[in-house]
Amino acid sequence: MNSQFNALLEKSGEYGVVYQVSHPIVFIEGLPKVRTHEVIIFETGQKAEVFAINRGKVEARTFSHEPIRVGTMVTRTGDLLSVPVGQELLGHTINPLGEPLDPSIPFTAPKVMRDLDAKPAGISGRQKITKHLITGVSLLDLMIPLGIGQRELIIGDRKTGKTSLLMTTIKSQIYEGNTVIYAAIAKKKSEIKKLQQFFEQEKIMSKIVIVATSSYDSPTLIFQTPYAAMSIAEYFRDLGTNTILILDDLSTHAKFYREISLLARRFPGRDSYPGDIFFVHSKLLERAGNFKHKTAGEVSITCLPVIEIVEGDFTGYISTNVMGITDGHIYLDANIYYQGMRPAVNVPLSVTRVGRQTLDKLSRDINKELTAFLSEYNKVLAVSHFGQELTEDVKRSLRLGEMVNKFFSQPYQETVPHKVQLIIISLILQDQIKTKEDLEKIKKGLIAAYYDRGKQKLLYDVTTAKDFKSFNTEVLTNKDALIAFAG
Which residues does the annotation mark as catalytic? Predict the structure, then answer.
């Protein structure tokens, strides 16, 4: 018998016996005072979480990959399922129980514990979302703006650049001084390794906590991954740190929860998912948002859940569920991806419900101007295929539209500061950039100037204009100095 089991058995004076197993679910008789979400321990040393008590019989989900045998004794630990939280986690990849995945890296386990199943803050503890979240992705920041504290769904087919889009956002947010919690749910071990390598290569791993499970792990552990990530994000929120939480991805999470529910003999509903699948995700995502804070004034958890769909089908059960819970969605379209546009965001089918209220007047004007211009450009593009002779105005529209699309096509290693985005769009719409080569040179020059203390003052001065008209005038006045940054 396990020594920890013996000590806990003596302490609680209660034990139960496993009478049925549907791995990873075990059914137990005994343990009269056990609570839901309590951790229990078997005489073999394996642990499980109680998730239901039905007519005196206990149902628990085991964390280990090895099945429990019928007849095994079990006792209570008295602790609810929790994860260790603290600054020590930064720069590490852990599982949902707070254990490091790479034993070769020195790791000090934090002393503070947080329950995985915490209650979301009520409306009195929340603040209105008023600040713009800069993702560094020009297309998003100008066309589908997000707010700090928003819950925005990233949805699209497999291999359409969802993770790449998130990588750019993470880089940009770490430059802004925020902390990132990345929940990698049932990923291949090679994918988790690739994530780590990218963050180390970009020298930002020290600001990131990765909570990861591989597809080989127990379904119970996989199910708890996003909850553990959310609990860690709440710890940093309480410190007064703005946090970005990535849940990659909730469609896989739902599949593993369906597997657990069917093994636990829960009645299947639509697509065989259990009836409480909406509640499972809404309870999780409701914990994100913009909150009041005693010292910082306000602090946020911005949540970006990911859903993978098949052949662009928006109407799937899980995708429509999560759409109903979040404040909008960014749709990555496979057709746009195969046309070579990166990121492959379908702007007309994407929604941001609270992002536009965070924009200042200049950004709002540019958003309206761009939306109107691209709508006109798409109409002209459709007509131009008929091959009739084009007027000068139409040719100009086509040229400018092509230039805007070229600017919006952005590699995921590159983050473009918001002030640089505004200046370049103004230069394009005023027909001041003639070729794609010039566009690349000016973009690189302005990004370098933004991070150069001697040069950045001009960018700040130009973008203080109150509206689009005066901003265009300001950009034209300083055009030579701005273009000179490109060398």
Answer: 353
